[in-house]
Each structure stands twice: as C-alpha cells, then as structure tokens.
Amino acid sequence: MDMKRDYYEDVEIFSSGAVVFWFVVLGCLLAAFPFFAENYYIYVANYIAINIIVVVGLNLLVGFTGQISLGHAGFYAVGAYGTITLMTEAHLPFLVALVLAALIAGLLGFLLGLPALRLEGPYLAIATLGFGLTITQVIGKIELLGGRQGLKAPDLMLFGRQLKTDQEFYFLAVPIAVLLVLFARNVVKTKVGRAFIAIRDADIAAETLGINLVFYKTLAFAVSAFYAGIAGGLYAFVLRFIDPELFSLFLSIMFLTMAVVGGLGSIMGPIAGALVLSWVDLELRNILSIPYLGDWLRHLSSSYFSLTGVSNIQFIVFGLILVGIMLFEPLGIYGIWIRAKKYWKTWPF
Amino acid sequence: MVNLIQMIVSGIAVGSAYALMGLGMVLIYKASEVPNFVQGEMALAPVFISYLLMNSYGAPVWVAFAGALVFAMVLGCILEFAVLRRAKDPNVLGLIIITIGLEMILLGLVSWKFGADQRSLPFPISSYDSVVIGNIFISTLDLLTLVVALVIMTILFLFFRFSKLGVAMKATQQNEIAARLMGIRTNRIKMVTWGISAMVGSVAGLLAAPVIMEPFMMWDPMLKGFAGAVVGGMTSLPGAVVGSYLVGVIEHLFGGYVSIEFKSVVAFVVIVIVLCVRPSGLLAKHYIKKV
Predict the structure, then answer these.
(1) Whole-prediction pTM value?
(2) What's the rounded Cα separation, in Å, for the pair B291 and B287?
(3) Which of A49, A230, B91, B207 has CA 20 to 30 A from A304's CA?
C-alpha cells in the first residue's frame, strides 16, 4: 500500500521509525510478560510460541510456495526425538542438539521434496501424509527411542544453568520464535521468497524465467521441515515426556488449519492463526469450567448427549471455526485485518 | 501357496471396504474438484443413526439400514448445499479446509452423543462364522462385504451408463459449463453426487460396524480408501477400485510375509513409489496444465 522507491526499501525489515518503535514496545511487553502473569499463562505462551514457529515454517511451504503438506507432524516428531536422543546418547549440549535435530528434519524434508516435484493437489497431500505417518510409525518401533512407552526429556542445561520452570523456558522459547519469524520475513522479502511466490503462482513460467524449480521446491520443503524440527525440539521440553501417539495425523491437520485460518501468504497470518487456535485448543480442554457456558453444556449433555463425551466439543468448535473462517473470509484472520485496514485507510470514501 | 491365496483373499475382502470409500471420494472429486475429507464421517453418522434406531426404537435390522441410507443421502445433500456451495472464490486448499472442518464437526457431534465406549452393531450375519472354500477360510462378514461391494459397483456402473441422472452426472464431471448450457442443473447434480457418495460410504461403514463401532472407526478406511483412490487415479472410478484393492492386498501380503507392525506404513510407501512413476495415478490421464 505504500510506495517503495528503491530495492533497499523493499527488503528492509522495519519500513519506518514508527514500526521500529512499536517493535521495541512489543519486545518490552514480551520480556515483561512472565513477571506479572500466572504460571499457567506462561505455559500457554510457551505452547503458542512453539506453534508459531511450526506454522510460520509451514506457511513458507503452503502459503508462499503453493504446496500442501499433511506430514509436518513427522518433522515435529523428528525434532523432538532427535533433540532428546542427541542429548542423552551423544551428550551434546541443548542448543547443538536442537539445531542438529532440526537439520536432520530438514534433510528429511528435502527427501520429501524430491517426489513432490512431480505431484500436486491430492496426490501431493497423500504423499506427504504417507511420509508423516511413516516417520511416526518408524520412530514408534525403534527401541532406542523408547518404543511405545515414549521418552522422558532430560534436564535442560543451558550455558551451565538448569532451566526448570516455565518462566525460564519462556526466555528460551520466545527469543527463538522471534528470531525465526524475523528470519522468515527476511526470506520472504528477498530473492528466495520471490522465487517461492513465483513457483506458487505459475511454476512452469517460473522455470522458463530461470528459477530452478528443483532447488527451490526442495529448499521450501527443507526450510519448513527445519522450522518444524526446532519447534519439536522445544516442545519436547515443554511437555517433558513424549510418545509416538502425540504426533498423529490430527496434529498435522491442526498445523495446516492454523496456517490457513491465520492467512496464507503472509508472515503475520500464521502468527495470528497459531495464537487463536492454540489458545482455543487449550481453553477447550476444560470447557466445563467456563462459568455459564459450562453449566449449560453439562445440562445439555446429560439430557440429550452423553456426559462422557463432552470433551469432544473441542472438535465441534474447531470445525465451526474452520468452516466459518473459510466461508466468510477465505484469506483468514490476516485477510480480516487487511480489509479493516483498507477500509479505515480510505475512509470516508 | 495356500497361505498366499489366503492372504490375497483376506486382502481383497478388506480392500472392498476401502474400495467403497475410494469410490465415494472419486465421485466427489470428479464433481466438486475437492478431495473430500468428510467421507469418513459422512459414513460414520448413518451407522450410529442405525444403531440408535435399532437400540432405542427397536426397529428391525432392515428398516434401520434403510433409514441409515436415507439419512446418508440427506446428510450428503445438506453438506453440499449448505456449506460447500457457499464458499466464495474457492481455491483447493480452502475447500479442503472446509471439508476438514465439517469432518471435525460431525466427529464431535457423533462422539459427544454416543460417548467413547465401544459398542457393536447387532447384525444377522456374524463375523465369527466362516465359510471354507477349498482350504481358504473367509469369514461370512468378509464374504458379505466383498459381494456387496461388487454389487454396488455393478449398480453404479449401470447407473452411470444407462440412467438419465447418471449420464447427467458424467456430463457435469466432464465439463460443467457445457452441461449447464445443455440444460442440466449442475447444482442439483452436485448435491446428488454428494448424497450418493455418502450412501456408498455408509454401506462400507455398516459392513465394518459389526466388528467394532467407535467414533474413530472410519479414519482408517477413509485414509486407505483415499490412498487407493490416489493410486488408481483421482479422476477415474475403476481406478479407485483397482487402487483400493491393490492397497488392501499389498497390506495383507506385507503383513503376512514381512512384518505385521509396518503394515500401514508399507501401503503409503508403495503409493509414493507409484506416484513417482505415474504422477496422476495408475489409470488416469496425466493432465499437464497450461502455463
């Protein structure tokens, strides 16, 4: 909406002084948050930060490069299991193990990208789905990785200090999330991002313009798998205990819906989507404790439905949110923001 | 040798259920151009409705089944009419997300109403008797599934070939604008396609229900049916059937000979390999898109 006058203005991170100011304010708010919030909300913030990382990575693949991936739970699992195994078996420090596990996930993403070069639409969806399921099943069978019983995360030592509480973990997860989001924004604004967007819009035309489809498509898969790997590694330490059942197809679908509901093709979109849907997910797990709604639901359940299945309401609410957003605003939450901004910017015309 | 034939036969029996789901998915993909993730739950809800009819209202088995099929038809029509058609400016991913949302709503409603305990559908043909042909054991339920699947495929084939509605459906799938110019009401045709697809899926569900009946039971047949449809080619009905039988047989052969743990994994690995060689599936024409 604002005119850019040269290439530097197009790629810079902060487009004006006001943006820098608000970014600094955001940074201060994020840094001060754990000091005046309860422990539960810090846990929620950690969970949201991890989901933001995954969904921003997935959005690089789905929103900017136009592919579909239903297998991101597999890369998430590789990140989680890889970090823990590298820390316990190879005795590497946490950050090294995290990056290494994410690189392994990135390599698997590259391998997934190779058959994906020829596929599109539902064929690509099935290929990625199969890939994700395969990785989870294989991890579940290997005894070194705990098999069916899962793995317990070791103590998290960072630069000699042990991170025990959620608050200390917050200061690890949120800076990583901010860094990765800025990195993604940089990627999108420069040559690689423009190549991705060209592939999404018309990939045969992009190839004729000299964009190497093989390189950029596999790069997109690898980068989004890397993001999922880092998020998985952090998730292992939020939960402290992982088992193969966690990384199901449902988790992949959750990531995809967070990306689509937030808004594909932008950086703020997946952040909004991850925020809203993660918060809804966590709140719905104890829906009966909401003051008026909980009692009404309990009454409704015991008379018409079964009481034991009340926790399945989270499916219904998710489904309603998905259908509602896609019917009324196909561009997602970010689309609503853009429409509001356009409306107010051109008011009163 | 007998073992091999036994495994192939049980693979075909299992593949029949997948084939019905795959048929439903391909029907919808050809009509509405969306891979339909609701297929499992559109099949699940009528099964639970028939359970409700049989238990709470004491209806005989055939009435309950007929009621389930009617409910499936209505459910499919309502889903298309009320939700899918209202999507403005649909791109593929948006439509997929709508179907996933519908699937979650239906799954939530069914599991809320019926709870998570397992039940089983009282069914006149038990899954524990078997019929012996030569040296091969095949349970009566599996045999019934196989026969019913073949009957339904024959009915669908005859329907598409010889009835006016079937020909209209084929015309809508091939070229929607031309069909509208010819006077076919494509909106209604799409509604009916969804209804028929839901009916076919619910037959698969009803045949799988006597063994186990829980809200998550249709995930696996739906995924395998989807995978089979993809292998066979999403735009060809015989392809869906062939692909699903292939998936079922390969699964059982692998489970029997190599390892029973990686059964479902190998199906997907085979699918990825097939898709590498023939990117649009086995029996479909590979449409190279325009720039």
Answers:
(1) 0.88
(2) 12
(3) B207
Annotated domain spans of chain B: 24-218
pLDDT digits (tens, 9 = 90+) for A92-140: 888 888 999 999 999 999 999 988 888 877 888 888 988 888 888 888 7
Q: Cβ of B82 under 8 Å from any chain A Cβ?
A: no
A240 & A329 share domain: no
How far, in whole angstroms, is CA A216 from its chain's centroid? 21
Domain range spanning residue A173?
Answer: 38-263
Distance to chain B for A29, nearest Cα, Å: 34
CB contact under 8 A, A260 and B93: yes
Beta carbons of A313 and B227 less than 8 Å apart: no
From the CA of A23, how many Å to the nearest CA of chain B? Answer: 32
Clarify whether residues A259 and A300 are in a common domain: no
Whole-number Å distance between alpha carbons of B106 and B39:
11
Strand locations in chain B, DSSP E? 130-133, 136-139
Q: How many structural domains comprise chain A? A: 2
A138 to chain B, minimum CA–CA distance in Å? 8
Quick: pLDDT tens for A6-16: 888 777 777 77
Handedness of CA B194, B195, B200, B201 (dihedral sign): positive
* Total beta-carbon pairs less than 8 A apart between chain A and chain B: 157
Residue A232 placed within a domain: yes
ipTM field: 0.84
